[in-house]
Specification:
By secondary structure, the protein is of the alpha/beta class. It contains eight helices and five strands. A five-stranded mixed beta sheet has the order 2-1-3-4-5, with helices on both faces. Helix 5 packs across helix 7 and helix 7 crosses helix 8.
Amino acid sequence: MRAIIYCRVSTTKETQETSLKRQEEELLELGRQKGFEIVKVIKEQASGYELERDGIIEMLSLIKELNIDVILIQDETRLGRGNAKVALLHCIMKDGVKLYSISHSGELQLSESDTMILKIVSMVEEYQRKLHNIKIKRGMKRAIEQGYQPQKNLKNQGDNSGRERKEVPISEIVRLRHNDLTFAEIAATLRGFGYDISKATVHRRYKEYTEEET
């Protein structure tokens, strides 16, 4: 199993460097005992309440890039504190990565409160995803009822089918806007038909079009 070691201390005082080194040594030993392949050791001096940490950003990126299976930490507070800790636990566990800690001499055992919070977060995220899909479906239905015919406007069919569509159909944006769809609904509708477009892009292109017309 491929693993990353993550060590953190809360301040940049020189005295904390000893703690960082101790964490690294203990976690290297834990990884050796468990037979893990250590592919990276990340050490940083920063507050656990902050999410914007270079080490954490690097760790989250490497999880996907290097197919990491395990994160080794001294204890969950080294990962983060407060809301930052919950957010990071959710991100890591959602990717199927296990956490091993010195404090548990093996796989991290979450407290009942942390486990309950993570279940709530996962539930909320799932409902957000469902609501997003419902919004897309409603936007598509409303657009078609207003005369939008996707079969006449989709690009890259035939040999190019399935490729990401880069072109933005400004004529359809204008038409859907004239049918009283919001920019968010237009973006959701076009994404449903394969266009990679955001609400901000729809608004910007529509604004550019109206400025050209005037």
